Amino acid sequence: MEQVFFGIILIGAVILFMTRWLPYEATAAFIVGSLVLTGILTPGEALSGFSNPATVTIATMFVLSAGLIKTGALEFLVRVLRRGAKGSIPRLVALLAVVVGLSSAFLNNTPVVVMIVPVALALAQQNDIKPSKILLPVSYFAILGGTCTLVGTSTNLLVDEAYRHTGGTGFGIFDFAPLGICYFLIGTLYILMFYQRFLPERSPLATLVPADRGATFVTELIVGPEAPLVGRALMEVLPPSNPDVRLIEIVRGEQVLFAGVALEKNVEPGDSLIVEGTPQGIAAFIERNGVRIASVVEDEKRVEVRTMDLSIVEAVVLPDSPFVGRAVSTLGLNRLYGVKIMAIQRHGLQHRYHLRGMRLKGGDVLLLQADRRGLNALRETGAVMVVEGVDRLVVQTAQAPLAIGVLVGVILMATFNIAPLAVAALAGAGVLLATRCLRPREAIAALDTPILLLIVGAIPLGLAMEKTGLALTLVDGCLTALGGLGPAAVLSGFYLITSVLSSFLSNNATALLMSPLAVGVAAALGVDTRPFLIAIAFGASASFATPVGYQTNLIVMGPGGYTFGDYLRFGLPLNILLWIAASFLIPLFYPF
Q1: What is the Cα 270 distance to its own chain's centre?
Q2: Smallest Cα–Cα separation from 391: which of 66, 72, 63?
Q3: Between 202 and 264, residue with greater pLDDT
Q4: CA-to-CA dists, residue 186 to 74, 90, 141, 503, angstroms
Q5: Is the predicted pLDDT of residue 8 greater than 80, yes or no?
Q6: Mean pLDDT of 472-501
Q7: CB-side neighbour CA atoms (13 Å) of 253
């Protein structure tokens, strides 16, 4: 009966992880509570994820990564990008491979991508390059770089803990490097050869606003019944040749007419004119034609814009943002930060109407209107990635050498077994706080709470899988299907299954669910556990074919204007290529 109850809990957890109908925090609470209430685990066992060394290490690595980024310790890498691009897409992509791959090998790759994406966008704009040609490679380079060391991705840390749970010695900092470096080289070569062919030339929401974002606006003007322009031809009112104000489209009742069609119509009372222009041009048009400045979303209502001295920027809703699942009208962005939402882009489609009721999703791109202070306050929440000019992205401070020294110290302590990685990383985070490289509020904001709670909930799932005997049942099934083919074939099959699951589940959840099975199969075959756990780590991390398998893929989706098909077309061949490589290289580097 325990297996039946656990099977129901497991299926429910997998569905919730896959669909994200509930936040990860709620799914984790559901898992822990269900395992205790059904008697499958004791309260201590169900809560063991909170005290697990992997959870502590992952949390402190988020803090260490934030310390390096906040202090500007990676500024020299950004300078390399700025100097080296020089208008060449291949040169820029190659430089991104080096900078992002090297950073992601020693820092959590999610904050690295959050830091690099605005830089890459600014460089693309300066060099007249479509963002869609370079942002997905940024995500892929971060994934590939993260596989090179134990600390590069949380997946490796979770697999390391699974190994220690079985009585193994665990993995060293650079034990993943032989295969990780091969992965990085193979993946980089593939990207450089095929990104021009497979990636689209597509612009994101920023195309609504020309290059000089601070000097132009996209806004909505309401035509009242008394306006002098009522009855006049739109072609006469807003000629395409006007450099100061350009019609994008009009909203007439429930009908949306784009500029090409709308310009043939006459203006009617109640029309909403969506226009793009300079503050001076829009102000002159309003005064001349008697229309009202409409409307950006200001919390629960639409309001008139009373000043034109604000900036327009984009912000990407991060995958685990507290904004996910909430309606725009409930966020209180104007009340809290003076920030107004002008438009939303989702999966390449622009939305500028009925914004108040839209529930945000990870990867949504918001077109915001705000002043500098409001943008800084919003950025510090960690809920969104604000996209703006490259010169404003990196903070320079004398504390950068200290932050680098702390990271090096943590790596050396773990490499030479002076202290366990969890202890060394925790001490390093303490040093950053004590020396004010990070404020306590910034350290807390750096913690990716949904991911940490996902891990907290998934760890007892693995424990329950063993305790109920379901792991043994699944292992027997795997051996029946693949055991006669030999350890290498079984390992290849495990990698493939993990890679497919990771395309729909999160990489961390996949690693936690597959690790007990890998350990059991290795034991049943009488071979070393290490190669099977390596297959799980790399199969879970190397997720390129969908935007949901890895956080960084979702982060670049909005700014790059990508669709699901773009990931499948560009990422699936890379998934297959690395599966073939892993089938030969894992037994070579990690013998049975």
Answers
A1: 41
A2: 72
A3: 264
A4: 25, 17, 11, 20
A5: yes
A6: 84
A7: 2
